[in-house]
Amino acid sequence: MAMVTRVAAFAVRRRRLVLTLTVVFVALSIVFGAGVVKRLSGGGFDDPNAEATRATRALATQFHTGVPNFNLLVQADKSVDAPDVSAAGTTLAEQLGSQPNVANVFSYWTTGHPATLRSTDRKQALILVRLVGSDDTRTRRAHDLAKRFAGRHGGLVVRAGGESMVFDAVGSRIQHDLSRAEMIVFPITFVLLVLVFGGAVAALLPLAIGGIAIVGTLLVLRILTIFTAVSVYSLNLTTGLGLGLAIDYGLFVVTRYREELARGASYEEAIIASSRTAGRTVAFSSLAVALSLVALLVFPLFFLRSFGYAGIAVVAIASLGAVLVLPALLAVLGPRIDKWQIFNRRPADREHGFWRRTATAVMQRPLVTGGAVIALLVVLGVPFLGVRFGLPDDRVLPSSNAVQQTQQVLRTDFAGRSGEPVLVVAPTGAPSQREIAAYAERLSTLPGADTVQSGAGSFVNGRQVAPAPRSGFSDPDGQGFWLSVTPAVEPMSDTGKAFVRHIRDIPSPAPVLVGGLAASLVDTEHSLASRMWLAGLIISIAMLAVLFLFTGSVVVPLKAIVLNLLSLSATFGAMVFVFQQGHLGWLVGRPIVTGALDTTTPILMFCVAFGLSMDYEVFLLSRIKETYDAGADNATAVGVGLERTGRLITAAAALIAVVWISFISSGVTFIKMLGLGMALAVIADATLIRGVLVPAFMRVAGDWNWWAPKPLRRLHERVGISEQQAFPAVRAANTSANAGV
């Protein structure tokens, strides 16, 4: 990586130019990226090419109808059938119908007083609205309609709800929680960095790189919104990953810089040396992290792809800041890096200490210590065997949220409103009413079916219970038809998914598309599962390639993949234990437990955690290999490598864990889950994996750790990377030290 050294040399030589351009970049990012939040979307959880999505699209474009996505819950202190209440409710419905982006309005008072739109105590009724437009347009219109219509209207109390209101509430909560998390985490990380470096100036350097990475990524996301939809939730990854990686990279480079100064190098020589060593580690580590996040781009859900966009951008900017901006800052600071020093910190390059003793103790009984940790991780991962997945709904919000409370009333007080309908849409074909009736009758006999509504009438248990409506279930041009199947089972459950599959297996008089909430869950799970192999392949190739370049071994990279999978399985088990089963709710703010996890969050955690683990893996193995190549035996190399990196990796892990833990304060459940899961993954990786399983495995494997087939060994000799010392005198000192251990 001579390029990294040349970049650092340029930064030192043209330090003022580099810092001036950096200030200009930050200013432009703030000016043009600050408004990105208004352009981000709260949707993106569906595959745009899935059958359920196409069914919804056909309903809207061909039949000009669909599932209502906004509602008003009207509450009265007497029966909703009272004349004055009925008149007021009818007026509300008529006023809603005249609003922009309102396509359909169905109210209790204007559709024949159906029981499903009236509460069981007869004091509440519903007005259902279908808003049209993009996800963002519907969300904005729902927000405006709620401001206009929610509240008191004479003797009525009106509350707003529905899918679009949920998206609006979640988006608002995300922005509020993110601002609060940043206000909490920046001061805490600064204090911790002061404790690590011993002074305020050095502590500010990683935070400066983090700030550059975060605001720069906002600019990138703003540009991307011109061409594609980007999820608002990607802002959380921007903050978490940007600050976390900046801390890691800043710690690696500044610590190595101080080590070089302690060995007698000049300030400029120390900058170049730290770039040739830690800087190269940062460059290749960031490449591996970015490649891991590329795996998110293979999924069709723009929710996941947005995290890929944000993650790749923040990694690229953070790494560029570490290898270009940080050397320029160090060159400008010179001896002032130790200004406002509170206490002196010895460089973490000792040959003997806590981590060396820990590694030695582990390697004395590698099977016992390693086996105990593996058993612990396996036990922690067992709950993941019972994982159930679902799609996010209003229950990702806290129970104190007004929109969530409105939606909960629909579940508890309205008979038949808890089961979202399954929509069966035939865009083509013109079967007879008799054929449609026979099809609807057959669907009504399926296990889990409650009522089937169609253009041929309504059916329950194979019998017609209501006559055919005048219109509404067929194409105005006479082509195609659709049916609504109300399930008697929870849509986001195994029985709900089985119900969708049964419907799709029933022969129909024309080709049909099956949509609705349960169908979306089935299709989303299939869409994600069908691409997991590709995402896993990308991540595996990235890890294998980078670790091979550093070590020249094929054994160590395979070990890293296996240990990371083991660590992640324990993390996923903890997620099931806390968020699906509802244990330790006090620890995470008592979120609403639905008995399922969001389908996308484990995939996101998998890709991000695998990438972050590369930081510590590359840094540790580069030091171990450096010592091994200097002539030390395998056990000594492991002990010395762990001692030289243990304190630094532990500090970096603690700092980045603080960043992720701050997300637990969010009011959105899957953000809580991301924060807790990533914090646990980072902590487990830096302690159990690096502190116990790595030395245990490497002790058992012995010299086989560094094995590779002859063709690959020759390849590594030509293109491999080794974090060697910058100066011959320093290299000689290391060789002497290794000979004495």
Describe the structure.
This protein is of the alpha+beta class and 741 residues long. It has 22 helices and 13 strands. It folds into three domains: 446 residues, Multidrug efflux transporter AcrB transmembrane domain (Multidrug efflux transporter AcrB transmembrane fold); 93 residues, Alpha-Beta Plaits (2-Layer Sandwich), CATH 3.30.70; 96 residues, Alpha-Beta Plaits, CATH 3.30.70. Helix 8 runs parallel beside helix 10. The strands form three sheets. It has a six-stranded antiparallel sheet with strand order 10-9-8-11-7-12, with helices on both faces. The protein has a five-stranded antiparallel sheet with strand order 2-3-1-5-4, sandwiched between helices.
Attribute tags:
single chain; five-stranded antiparallel beta sheet; Multidrug efflux transporter AcrB transmembrane fold; six-stranded antiparallel beta sheet; alpha+beta
